[in-house]
């Protein structure tokens, strides 16, 4: 016969406590798993190119504020000489909403397109600008800007009527949607 320690009521109480501890361990484990945050897959960021008209150094902060309102965590680069912004974001940028925010400041959104890494053929010219030169990023911003300005001036000289027709699209809020 095996000698048992303590009275029978104490032994029964110890079995109950051990059982609760085992169940409690399981319960604690389940609670811990239940409070572990579940991470969903992140949306992949996309690159956009936003072309403006009427942008200058005094108005640059309005563009920053308007774009960051879509996604405060976006990566943003604004070029005043080129009248454009490069954006990397997970959010959708609504051209009309952006135009509504910027038009009171005299800044107009000519077009929003992407991805910026698609090369010149991936970027659209303003509507009605058949053959309009595209900015080509070779990694040398000053030279690229000069090349674009020269090509644009040559296009304007060769197509004055088309350029005149393009002006309303550049200067009105409703012009040239995405």
Judged by helices, strands and strand pairing, the structural class is alpha+beta
Distance between the termini: 90 Å
Helix content range of the residues, please? 40-55%
Mean pLDDT: 75
Give the name of the CATH architecture of the domain at 46-117 and 125-171: 2-Layer Sandwich
Poorly predicted regions: 116-124, 171-178
Radius of gyration: 31 Å
Q: Under the CATH scheme, which class of the domain at 46-117 and 125-171?
A: Alpha Beta
Strand content: 5-15%
**Strand order of the biggest β-sheet:** 2-3-1-4
Report the biggest beta sheet as strand number plus sense, adding barrel if it closes: 4 strands, antiparallel
Order of helices and strands: HEHEEHEHH
Question: What fold name stands as the CATH topology of the domain at 46-117 and 125-171?
Answer: Alpha-Beta Plaits
Number of helices: 5
3D shape: rod-shaped
- Give the number of DSSP strands: 4
Task: Give a concise summary.
The protein has helices at 8-34, 60-68, 95-102, 141-158, 160-171; strands at residues 46-53, 75-79, 84-89, 108-113. With 178 residues, the chain is α+β, with helices and mostly antiparallel strands.
Structural notes for this entry:
- This protein has a domain at 46-117 and 125-171: Alpha-Beta Plaits (2-Layer Sandwich), CATH 3.30.70.100.
- Helix content is 42%, strand content 14%.
- The chain contains 5 helices and 4 strands; from the N terminus they run αβαββαβαα.
- Strands 2-3-1-4 form a 4-stranded antiparallel beta sheet.
- The radius of gyration is 31 Å and the shape is rod-shaped.
- The relative contact order is 0.12.
